[in-house]
Amino acid sequence: MLEHKLSTWRFIIVLWPLLVVFIAAQWVMRMFGNSASIAIPWWLSLADFAVFIAVFAGAAVWVYGPLKKAQSWLDKSTRRSHKYLEQGISLLPKRAFKGFFVAGFCCAIYLIVVLNVGAVVSGSLLTPRMSIALALSLLYGAAVLAPSMALSMALAYSVRLRAELAEKGLFLHTLSDDYGSILHWNKISRRPWVIFLITSALPASILALFVYLILGADTVSEQQFILLQAGVLFVSLMLAGAWLVFTVGKILKQVMESFSIGLERMRQGQYDGRVAVLSDDEFGTLAKGMNTAFSGLREREELKHGLEIAVEIHHAMLPVDVPDIKGYQVLGFEQSCEAVGGDYYDHIVLPDGRVWLVVADVAGKGYPAALTVANLRAMLHALAHLELPFEKAVEYTNNTLCETLTGGRFVTLFLAKLQPESNSLLWLNAGHVPALLCRNGEIEAFEASSPPMGLQADLKFEVSEHILEKGDSLLVYSDGITEARDYDSDEMFGEFRVKQWFAAHGNLDVAQLSQGLQEELNDFGKLAADDDVTMLWLRRDE
Prior knowledge:
The strands form three sheets. The chain has a five-stranded antiparallel β-sheet with strand order 1-12-9-6-7. A five-stranded antiparallel β-sheet has the order 2-3-4-5-8, covered by helices on one side. A two-stranded antiparallel sheet has the order 10-11. The protein has helices at 2-5, 8-13, 16-31, 34-37, 42-73, 79-121, 128-167, 191-215, 220-267, 282-317, 366-384, 390-404, 479-482, 494-505, 510-524, and strands at residues 328-335, 343-349, 355-362, 411-419, 424-430, 435-439, 442-446, 464-467, 473-477, 485-486, 491-492, 533-540. It is an alpha+beta fold.
């Protein structure tokens, strides 16, 4: 259980390597006679050991304080408990830095005072050079090495705890400036220099001072004492330095493993996971960046799924079946330049055999235009079956669009009503590109007689009528055809080319006409590269 792992004793026990280094230093002093030379009794060494344990244990209790508060709230599983846990973990590095270095300095001063006083009481006089060597050794060991080890173990404990919390699904939002957890010394770029200072620059400087002190010593015993203190420093440095490198390497390994798992999930497309923020440094910032990427990719997948549904809905709004009209062929084609578009074509067959033919182009592209298409389709299907006069239905549609469209958006519309029994075609053009009628190789354009819909309410629309003859072909299309672009010359396909091609091929059936014009557009540039392309064909065969 996490509550069991969150305990003060567990945190204190993590610091056990400090005892190993302290015992090793004491053993070297006694084994080679330095303790005896200044008459340090064994009970004083034990007392020093007890003080060292007490001071660092007390510092550990203080460092762990915020986590102790979080521990008492964990079983409540509330937002406040998570806040306390987050605050405690975020504060741990900073409190460890303060607590352990203060503890180490206090221990160093205590040991220097006690050993010097003990030497005076026992009658073993320390020369100034011996006192300096002893002080340098104790200050480096207790005030530098020991706190550095304790700090590294506290950081490792924090990383391990965050990883355990992440495994249980509790990802903490760390790296908060409110808690002051990011310290300058903890930056990755400075960490190698800190380790170099602790394990190389400082001890090398102290050893150089020892050499200077030895060369100036008056007696062999004085030289031997200083040399043995150098040995104590060397042993402490080897043990502590090895543990520091091991701990830092372990932290880096755990962080990199977390990144590797996250990257593998990303490679496999598993975007529902997260990467634990294991440290308050650049690695933590990178982990947060990866989590932001996971969130963005997850949203993209959701958007992609929504887009697939939108495409299905958009396609469902287009006619599925070709109407069977005696004596006529009808065929439509639509291709959007994006996933969904603003072009719309339809053929609405009424119970009495009449057919509404629709081609509309909504200003804009993408989702906004597609929503307007859906609204327009619903209105036209409803109005077509109400048997309203043709122009009244269009007036109602225009007024409704004026209420719903905003930002200067509009709809161009070509709407026709075919009456097969009389071969009559009623039509109106509201700002749309001219529909083209091909009769015996001659082209007639059905020009717009009113502005686009949705711009001005209460407009009156002019309805025209044509009687279709055998062999007549009608093409209603969107401006995506005329505005198709040749990217080499930046020239548009244009209305003239449409008329020229239609006049040359108007005797074909609608399937050949549709396929042929698509191929012509692809040869010229690329079909629906910049704008939606829609075409609706009508041909009278009898």
